[in-house]
What does this fold into?
Amino acid sequence: MAREQTSSVPRAFWVPQSTFEHYHVAGASTHYRRRPRSGMEYATRPLSELFADIASPSVAPAGGTAGAVVAATGTALCEMACIHLRAADAPADVDLVELEAELEGHRERLLTLGSADAAVVEALFGSDGEAGHSSRKRSVGVPLALAECCLAALEAAAAVTGASDRPVVADAVTGAYFLEAALQSAVATARGNLASVGEQSFRAATERRLSELETSADRVFRNVTESADAEAQ
It folds into this structure.
């Protein structure tokens, strides 16, 4: 079972795994819904089309979507390691079946957030109108949710890399590098967009959580690299 994500920040930006259209804006009495336009559901699109969409005059997809795809790729590598370790009946310190299921859940959510990010970018920059307060909050919330998910997946990746000394674990280490890079990118995006939100309490709470994410990611990623270095010696 995938662990439920938690955050010290009010759920101003929770994007459920089951939908691309539900955003709950903190401090507001309504839910805002925006379904991505056709073509933004990147979980089912060929990579060649995604890259062509990014390298185009369109405002979306952009960095958030690209980062989500990189993170999902890293997660998939960790899933692969679990599958091969189970197939080889390799001794492991963790429940590989449970870990694989958790990673799959993270991968699906990462792709969901990639589509959500494209929708937010489209809402912010795809029209001539000025971005509203809720849209600016979502431009912080989606990358923050992406960073949260990257951390959860990175923690699972650390469990994979420490589970065995088989060669396939090296692929999980590669996956951890992808996840760490995507997390740092998402944190930078959220922090950059935070300047456009005037609500001081929101900004302070979000900045605290971003700092917590950076600290936690550094600790987890250091465990991954130290484990990999030890196996290489």
Q: What stands out?
A: Strands lie at 22-24, 31-33. The radius of gyration is 18 Å. The chain has a mean pLDDT of 82. The chain is about 65% helix and 5% strand.
